[in-house]
Amino acid sequence: YLLPSIFSVTIPMAFLLGVLLAFGRLASDSEIVALRASGVSPARLLRPVVALSVVAGLVTFYVVGVALPAANQAYRELIFKLVISKARTQMAARVFNDDLVPGMVFYISDIPARSGEWRDVFIFDGRVASKPQVILARTGRLHVEEARKSVGLDLTEATVYSFNQVDPA
C-alpha cells in the first residue's frame, strides 16, 4: 500500500541523479569536449536522456494518477477493517478496556454470545482533559456503517455525567 507513494518520489529522483552522475562523469573526463570536437551535437547527446525522461515521466504519472489513489483507498479500507475487528474482538466482559480509543475506558458487565449486545456499559471519556465525562448505559451495541466508513455506539437508557475540571464548584 505504501510502494506507490515511495515510487512517486524515487523514480524522478533516481532518474535525475542518474543523469547528473552520467553527465558529471562525462564532463570530468573531458569526454563531452571530445564528443563535441568529433562532431556530435548537444541535441544528439540529449536524445536518449529525453526519451528516458519521457518514459520515467509517464511511469510517474501513472503511479501518481492511478496507483497511488487506489493504494490509499485500499490502505484506508484495511485500517477501517482492523479497527472494526479490534473493537469486536477486544471488548471483553468484566474487563476495563482502554486500548480501543485513546483517552477512553470501557467496562462492560456482560456480553451474551448469541446477541453480542453489551449490558451495563460504563464509559469514561477523558479525551478533553478539562471536561471528562462518565457515560452509563443499560445496553450498548457497536454500530458500523460500511458505506460511510464510520463506527459508533448505540446506547440505550444512557446517562451522561460531565465534570468541569477548571471550576469544580
What this model shows, in words?
By secondary structure, the chain is of the alpha+beta class. The protein folds into two domains: 3-88; 92-162, no CATH class. The chain has helices at residues 3-28, 31-37, 42-90, and strands at residues 96-97, 104-110, 118-125, 133-145, 150-162. Strands 1-2-3-4-5 form a five-stranded antiparallel beta sheet, covered by helices on one side. The longest helix is centred in the middle third of the chain and has 49 residues, at 42-90. It is elongated.
Q: What structural keywords apply?
A:
single chain, about 170 residues, alpha+beta, 2 domains, five-stranded antiparallel beta sheet, 3 helices, about 50% helix, about 25% strand, elongated
Report the β-strand fraction as a percent range.
Answer: 25-35%
Rounded to an integer, what's the Rg over CA atoms?
A: 30 Å
Poorly predicted regions are none
Number of distinct helices: 3
Gap between N and C termini: 52 Å
Structural class: alpha+beta
Helix content: 40-55%
Topology as a string of helices (H) and strands (E): HHHEEEEE
Give the rounded overall mean pLDDT.
90
Count all strands and give the number.
5
The biggest sheet, with number of strands, parallel, antiparallel or mixed sense and barrel status, is: 5 strands, antiparallel
What is the overall silhouette? elongated
**Strand line-up across the major sheet:** 1-2-3-4-5
Number of domains: 2
